[in-house]
Amino acid sequence: MPRPYSVDLRERAVAAYRRGGRTLEEVAAEFSVCSKTLAHWLKLEDGTGSLEPRPRGGGNL
């Protein structure tokens, strides 16, 4: 499973979008992330006030 994006990248991308003047797709392309990922980060920050990634599961198979 790939590592989560850094909190720094998440914060910079969200801040760039919130400054306005560009679409979600334009900002996502600038930071090399999917527009759905950026939309998820915006929703996450609005809901929790944080952009920390959720803990990853480590269940036994």
TrEMBL record:
Pfam families: HTH_28. Residues 10-58 form the Insertion element IS150 protein InsJ-like helix-turn-helix domain. InterPro entries: Homeodomain-like_sf, InsJ-like_HTH. Transmembrane segments: none annotated. Coiled coil: none annotated. This is Insertion element IS150 protein InsJ-like helix-turn-helix domain-containing protein. The lineage of its organism: Bacteria, Pseudomonadati, Myxococcota, Myxococcia, Myxococcales.
